Amino acid sequence: MIKLMIFDHDMTIVDSSYAIMAGFNYVAEHEGLPKVSHELTMKYIATPIPTFCEGLLGEYRPEWIKIYREVSKKFERELIKPFDDTIPTLIKLKEMGVKLAVVSNRETPQGVLERTGLAQYFDEIVGALEPYGKLPYKPNPAMINELLKHLNISKENAVYVGDADIDILTALGADVRGIGITKGNFTAEEFNLLGAWKVIDSLEELIEIVEKDAAD
Fold it and tell me: Within this chain, do residues 63 and 161 fall inside the same structural domain, yes or no?
């Protein structure tokens, strides 16, 4: 029975692609490079930073990432938005008695979740630096393991929902069921090959998954 549903953040419960695109377009303009399109951003989203930078700007330079990070918070405040089905799904899951959490490779995800109005729906928000102190980034399962220990919930009663390969690998490493969502850059076939327990196209499908799991 699913008692805890853990979510990745970017491209799982919020669309951060336009904020990312704006940040890299700032770098492109600063460096006299061609403008980055949303299509190109989506092609490389969820890839490692050097690969992402090479894909969007043609090469990887650490100083470009520094510029991006300096302006990214501004664009995040303006452009990161919850997906249309995020809040209705979270409300329904809470009504069903499911605890909700976020596990993100963001070091301090609490702030961005508060800015988008989503923090109120979660029982726990976990990043690489908060609230348990410094922990390894995904796909290391440490953040999920600490969360389960803190909430006193067994692995059998937890699932992790994410949009990328790293999320399924994290779930497998923590020995919890992994659900891939196709809102990012990974297909259902790719998720299945990775070993995902379920694959969904929208967050609303989680409601039926919880209902069926409770009935089994």
Answer: no
